[in-house]
Amino acid sequence: MMKAYDVNSMKIELKKIFKGYRIMTKWLRKQLKKLGLVVVEGSKHYKLVTLCNHYVCTIAKTASDFRSGYNIVHDICYGISKNVNKVPLE
To answer: Considering the entire predicted model, what is its pTM?
Structure first.
């Protein structure tokens, strides 16, 4: 069962977390887990998944420019809002 996500408050937290993103660190993984997102490692990308195993988005292992963090935040918020509508809240 997925908990209700407040996308606007999550977006504020994610912007703080991903500011200046270059690589995935232990600290970043812990912060994402606090927000209900788990990082699954692939060969060239990471996949972000909710604690209920619903896919959210894919992010690159290394950032390409200074905007990467902001683009990741947008992708996460879009993926979460898409998945929240599919799962009945109980």
So the answer is: 0.80
